[in-house]
Amino acid sequence: xxxxxxxxxxxxxxxxxxxxxxxxxxxxxxxxxxxxxxxxxxxxxxxxxxxxxxxxxxxxxxxxxxxxxxxxxxxxxxxxxxxxxxxxxxxxxxxxxxxxxxxxxxxxxxxxxxxxxxxxxxxxxxxxxxxxxxxxxxxxxxxxxxxxxxx
Length: 151
Description:
Blueprint: H1 9-28, E1 40-43, E2 46-52, H2 56-63, E3 69-78, E4 81-88, E5 93-100, E6 108-117, H3 123-140
Antiparallel strand pairs: 1-2, 2-6, 3-4, 4-5, 5-6
Helix pairs in contact: 2-3
C-alpha cells in the first residue's frame, strides 16, 4: 500500500491557530444571563449592585482573599442590613456593611456595599475588595452555586 504524503506543517499550524482563536471567547468568560447589571461605585469605599441578598456572606468569604483577610463574624442586623467583620493578616480589622436599598420580597435586590479597612481606612484595598465581592456576587446571582474563578 502506498504511503500518503505528509501533511504540510505550515497548514496544520494555521488550522490549530484558527481553532484556538474560534474557541477562545467561549472558554475565557463566565457567563450568567442574569448578571447583566453592572456594579456602580458610588463613593470611595461604596458600591451598589443588583445581587442576591443571601449570597453576601458566601461572596465576602471569597473576596477577602484579594485583600489578605478573613471573615471573623457575620451578623444579620435586620432583613435590610448585614455587617461582616474582617481581620487582615497584618492584624488590622475591617468591616463590610451591606444594606438593601429597595427592600422587597425578591431575593435579588439592589444592595449598597460599604467597606472599611484599618483604623484610618485604606481606599485602594477597600475598592479592590468591593470589586472582588461584586464580581463574585454577579457570578452567584440567580443560581444556587457557581464555580470559583481560577485567579
